[in-house]
Design brief:
Elements: E1 2-5, E2 15-19, E3 24-31, E4 41-46, H1 61-66, E5 70-77, E6 79-80, E7 83-84, H2 86-93, H3 100-105, E8 109-118, E9 121-122, H4 128-138, E10 145-146, H5 155-164, E11 169-174, E12 184-192, E13 196-206, E14 215-224, E15 227-234, H6 240-249, E16 269-270, E17 276-280, E18 294-298
């Protein structure tokens, strides 16, 4: 289940609010004792269905901690102090079998905010307030997982707190809302303090001076009615490591994937629209390009076909 974007906190009663975590959405399927030796097992999948169990070995103990069969929904984050760091998470989400030193340097924490199934019983049709109560009773906090608090009396105060702590924003959820798998529902709304979202890469332009003949900026867009609409280009925030990584991932093609292309001072390198990146920006006019965009990271957990304007 996904949230729609909103500009403000709802003023009518019946809403709960949680912190919006700057991480990677993960669904965890835990089975109490199913392998040949009768040990509990866990399978982790990203929002695009990719099996990422091997990427986060520190979450294996979650299966033993639950003592139940369950399907959980949440966000994997890496903290820097008391704030999530998407930059540090980037060091983990591309690695299928991380070395112990990498795990120790950038340990993940699974922020579990929903319970979808318990001991074979589907819970998706129960109201959010009931699912959260069951989750709180089921899962004790551990070193690498926790159930975050939520407020159901003053969402505006939580938004103010998120702003003071320089967090991404909050998500408000109807207390009576059921869980709609795969649906972007108005019963869940995200209010962002910092504007950012995912974009599909459709091409790149070479840089200047030391970056001549190398990737200098990405041309990005979103899907709208089956057309890839260009949203701008982003070069700020791209490190040498990211440029090299992206050049290897992007598949060059002869034709532009964008429906329309504005006049450009250089000939772009067009690529197949299969790579998703996250970009932060100051403004995005309805019929214009992103203003002050900053590259924040690669999103291997997103399906490019589902990237639309939020």
């Amino acid at each position: 289940m996904k949230a729609t974007s909103a500009d403000r906190v709802p003023t009518d009663p019946g809403w709960a609010a949680e912190i919006k975590w700057d991480g990677m959405r993960i669904q965890a399927t835990v089975e109490a004792a199913t392998d040949d030796e009768g040990d509990p097992t866990i399978v982790l999948r990203s929002s695009n269905g990719r099996d990422v169990t091997g990427s986060f070995p520190e979450l294996a103990g979650l299966a033993e901690a639950l003592h139940a069969d369950a399907v959980l929904d949440g966000e994997v984050v890496v903290f820097e102090g008391d704030r999530p760091s998407f930059g540090r998470l980037q060091q983990r989400i591309h690695i299928d079998r991380p070395h112990s030193a990498l795990v120790e340097a950038h340990p993940v924490v699974y922020i579990v905010f929903d319970l979808l199934r318990l001991d074979g019983n589907p819970l998706v049709n129960l109201p959010y307030r009931t699912r959260r109560r069951l989750l709180n009773d089921l899962l004790p906090d551990g070193a690498n997982w926790r159930t975050p608090p939520f407020v159901d009396d003053d969402p505006e105060a939580l938004l103010k707190l998120a702003n003071e702590r320089d967090l991404e924003g909050i998500v408000v959820k109807r207390l009576d809302s059921v869980y709609e798998p795969g649906v972007r529902s108005n019963a869940w709304r995200k209010i962002k303090i910092r504007r950012r979202q995912e974009f599909v890469v459709g091409g790149w332009l070479e840089g200047r001076r030391s970056l001549e003949k190398q990737l200098g900026s990405l041309m990005v867009g979103v899907w709208n009615d089956g057309r890839l609409v260009m949203a701008g280009r982003v070069g700020s925030g791209l490190t040498e490591v990211e440029r090299n990584r992206l050049e290897k991932l992007l598949v060059v093609t002869d034709d532009p994937p964008f429906a329309e292309v504005p006049p450009l001072e250089k000939r772009p390198v067009w690529v197949e629209p299969t790579v998703v990146v996250e970009v932060e920006y100051s403004e995005w006019p309805p019929d214009g390009m992103l203003r002050h965009p900053v590259y924040r990271g690669l999103r291997v957990d997103r399906d490019p076909a589902e990237v639309t304007r939020e």
